[in-house]
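Q: What structure does this chain adopt?
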Amino acid sequence: MAQKPSAPVTRRRSRRGEAGSAYMIVLLVLVVLTILALSLAFLTQTEVQIGGNERVTNRVFYAAESGIAAATANAMVNRDYRAHVYTFTDPGTVASLGFTETVDVSPVLPILDSPCNLCEINDAGTYTEKSFRKINHALTATSTRTYGTGTSALAQKTLAVMIEIQPWQASPEAYQPLTDPTQLAKIKF
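A:
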C-alpha cells in the first residue's frame, strides 16, 4: 500500500500582544464580580440594620402608647391620676441580654374643665349646677428601651397627648399635680 502524503503541519504563531489575554479578561471579570458581590453584601447588611433600628423604634413608640392607654384606663376606672412607671422585659429575646422597656407616664392632669353641652344627662338645671363636665386632660409618656444594666439606652420616644372625656365628674385628686412642680414638669406641651 502506498502511503498518502501527510498534510503539512502548520503552526499558528500568536502575536506577542495576544499571549495570555484570555487569562487577563477572566481575571478582570472575576474582580468585577467580586466587587459587585461585596457591594451587594454591604447593601444587605445595611438594610438589615435599618430594619432592626426601625423595629426598636416601633417597639418604643408602641410602649409609650401603651403607657398612655394604661394611665387613661387607670384614671377612668380607678380615679387614679398619679404618675406611674411601668417596666417590663422583652419576652422575645434571650434573658441574659437584659432588654427592658421603661415607660414613665406623667400624671393625668385636667387642663380644661368646661360644661358638657352635649350630654343629655345635663339637660336639667343650669351650667353652674351640673356635676358632669367635659374635661380635657394632658398626659405625657416617655418610653426608653435599654439593655444590660439599664445604663445604655437603645431608643427613646416621648408622646404628649390630650384626652377629652365627657361626661365626667371633676375630681379634686386630679388637680394635685398642679401644686407639685416636679410632677408638673413631666407634662410636655
